[in-house]
């Protein structure tokens, strides 16, 4: 047995691995578990994208190494996508880096920009992979609480002068996992101003950019004046086109940050399978009806869940975007106790808020990733517990 390096030992524990273990045990025991705990899109990738992959996979040119830093056509498609969707101009040659999914970029960025011991600002609750990037860069995390009273946006006035002076990087994520909150233009403007003043590079994780409810399309950070001077945005095809298994995304924005990501990736990989890149071009440039339909589907499910839970007396708030609902647990329970209780008594799996950070305590995250019928069934099971 070879001992692991201290770097590996410093990686955060995978909290949700134990949840998967618990859920699987119930399934193996023959229970009909409604699994709302995960973040895996349940719909297939649209057919036109799959077809493009199939034909591209048959082309021998794609059996070779694809060029370092990816296909020019994909960088151009990413730029075209930003112009079409957000009115943001992107230089495909200098302002796009192709990624093996958003996760790769998020984990790489601290290593690209920080020295060991440097500090960065991370939302709490937040997507746990941010912590992995911090650990691999041997950096220090300063958490920014996301509170319901602030619509789950960080309150920058709560940060100390010392922390603001120290921080070199900041992660943000709207529409937000896990809270379902969306950003406002005013908040992004305040962010750019703060970043300029304190020389902080902002990384906005726009994984749920395509999912906004009540007729509100989520805004891109890069739509904010001056944003490109101080930051980048990470976009992924995983959620927008149900391509989580394909591992494709991109970073857009500040030229020097994009160059740093590309440099690190030159040493880690060559590039993505050419056929996946061609299919990604298809996804980004073809008519976007599939995206609209997906958004409607999540909105209907959200309505079934939220209205259902409210009708049985659970005082829950509807998410404005992402495919998660963030539900306050009944008083007297920790998030983990309540998640265990739902699994044991109602065979419903949800993710305990504490798995997303200290400020996630008191909530559970529910994914809108099953049919309306199963959502109705989940509400009925919770009703039968008679706890509200
Ligand atoms: N960011 C957030 C907030 C996420 O929830 C996810 C996936 O669940 C990702 C990034 C990464 O997505 P991917 O690596 O599939 O692009």
From TrEMBL:
Domain of life: Bacteria
Family matches, as SUPFAM superfamilies: PLP-dependent transferases
GO function term, MF aspect, one: transaminase activity
Cofactor(s) listed in the protein's UniProt record: pyridoxal 5'-phosphate
Cytoplasm recorded as keyword: no
Pfam families xref list: Aminotran_1_2 (PF00155)
CDD domains reported in the protein's UniProt record: AAT_like
Residue span, Aminotransferase class I/classII large domain: 32-382
Keywords for the protein's UniProt record, in alphabetical order: Aminotransferase, Transferase
Entry-linked InterPro entries: Aminotransferase_I/II_large, LL-DAP_aminotransferase, PyrdxlP-dep_Trfase, PyrdxlP-dep_Trfase_major, PyrdxlP-dep_Trfase_small
Alphabetical list of PANTHER family matching this protein: AMINO ACID AMINOTRANSFERASE (PTHR42832), L-GLUTAMINE--4-(METHYLSULFANYL)-2-OXOBUTANOATE AMINOTRANSFERASE (PTHR42832:SF3)
Protein name per its UniProtKB record: Pyridoxal phosphate-dependent aminotransferase
């Amino acid at each position: 047995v070879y001992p692991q390096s201290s770097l590996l030992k410093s990686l955060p524990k995978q909290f949700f691995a134990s949840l998967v273990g618990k859920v699987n045990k119930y399934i193996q025991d023959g229970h009909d578990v409604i699994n709302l705990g995960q973040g895996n899109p349940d719909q297939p990738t649209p057919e036109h994208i799959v077809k493009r992959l199939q034909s591209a996979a048959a082309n021998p040119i794609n059996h070779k190494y694809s060029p370092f830093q990816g296909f020019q056509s994909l960088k151009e498609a990413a730029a075209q996508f930003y112009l079409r969707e957000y009115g943001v101009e992107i230089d495909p040659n200098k302002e796009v880096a192709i990624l093996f999914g958003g996760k790769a970029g998020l984990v790489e960025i601290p290593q690209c920009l920080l020295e060991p011991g440097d500090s960065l600002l991370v939302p709490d609750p937040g997507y746990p992979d941010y912590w992995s990037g911090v650990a691999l860069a041997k950096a220090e995390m300063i958490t920014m609480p996301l509170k319901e009273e602030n619509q789950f946006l960080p309150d920058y006035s709560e940060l100390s002068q010392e922390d603001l002076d120290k921080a070199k990087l900041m992660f943000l994520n709207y529409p937000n996992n896990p809270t379902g909150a969306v950003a406002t233009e005013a908040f992004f403007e305040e962010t750019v101003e703060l970043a300029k003043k304190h020389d902080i590079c902002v990384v906005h994780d726009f994984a749920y950019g395509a999912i906004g409810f009540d007729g509100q399309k989520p805004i891109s950070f890069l739509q904010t004046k001056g944003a490109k001077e101080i930051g980048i945005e990470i976009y992924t095809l995983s959620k927008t086109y149900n391509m989580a298994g394909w591992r494709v995304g991109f970073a857009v924005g500040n030229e020097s940050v994009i160059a740093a990501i590309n440099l690190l990736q030159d040493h880690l990989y060559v590039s993505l399978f050419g056929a996946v890149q061609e299919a990604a071009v298809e996804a980004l440039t073809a008519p976007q009806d599939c995206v609209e339909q997906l958004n409607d589907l999540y909105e209907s499910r959200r309505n079934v869940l939220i209205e259902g839970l409210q009708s049985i007396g659970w005082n829950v708030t509807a998410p404005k975007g992402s495919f998660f609902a963030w539900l306050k647990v009944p008083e007297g329970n920790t998030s983990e106790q309540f998640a265990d209780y739902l699994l044991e008594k109602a065979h419903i799996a949800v993710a305990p808020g504490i798995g997303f950070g200290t400020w996630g305590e008191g909530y559970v995250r529910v994914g809108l990733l099953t049919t309306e019928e199963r959502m109705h069934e989940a509400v009925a099971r919770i009703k039968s517990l008679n706890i509200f």
